[in-house]
Amino acid sequence: MKMSDRFRNFMRGRYGVDQLSNGLVFLFFILILIGILTRNTIFTWIALIPMILSYYRMFSKNFSKRYNENRIYTNLMSPVYDLLDKIKGFFNRKIKRFKTRKEYKYFKCPNCKQELRVPRGRGEITVTCPKCKQSFDRKS
């Protein structure tokens, strides 16, 4: 029997990894990093607590209890995840705009401030905002 099969058989019926376990591992790394930077061993010892809890949760056979813990964690962390998604979206839009800067020119609607994209090299054009239907002239 291969080692991967043995591990798969061992994990059968166990809870496994979820968002809370990942959060605990992340907390472990943050505490270890703080301990290294401050040269304080107390953080290293405290960092073992979330790591042990993470392993306990992964190997637990009590699905309902672990599921409820994870549900509470995800409900508490949803504003943080939403904020991170907004930040990620902001940077993705800026990266996309930077990559397409040679093909398109970007304007803001003077009425509703909606960002509009028009092809470059068309000369003087009339741009109509799809959101508020305001028309304005710009050079592309």
Give a short summary of the structure:
This protein has helices at residues 3-11, 19-38, 41-59, 63-99; strands at residues 104-108, 115-119, 124-128, 135-139. It is of the alpha+beta class and 140 residues long. It has 2 domains: 1-99, no CATH class; 100-140, no CATH class.
Give keywords.
140 residues; alpha+beta; 2 domains; two-stranded antiparallel ribbon; 4 strands; 61% helix; elongated
Tally of individual helices = 4
**In percent terms, what proportion of residues is strand?**
5-15%
Could you estimate the helical fraction of the residues in percent? 55-70%
Q: For the largest beta sheet, what order do the strands appear in spatially?
A: 1-2
H-E order: HHHHEEEE
Tally of strands: 4
- In total, how many domains does the architecture comprise? 2
Structure description:
The protein is of the alpha+beta class and 140 residues long. The chain has helices at residues 3-11, 19-38, 41-59, 63-99, and strands at residues 104-108, 115-119, 124-128, 135-139. A two-stranded antiparallel ribbon has the order 1-2. A two-stranded antiparallel sheet has the order 3-4. A hairpin with a 6-residue loop joins strand 3 (124-128) and strand 4 (135-139). The longest helix is centred in the middle third of the chain and has 37 residues, at 63-99. The protein starts with a helix and ends with a strand.
Question: What is this structure's SSE topology?
Answer:
Elements: H1 3-11, H2 19-38, H3 41-59, H4 63-99, E1 104-108, E2 115-119, E3 124-128, E4 135-139
Antiparallel strand pairs: 1-2, 3-4
Helix pairs in contact: 2-3
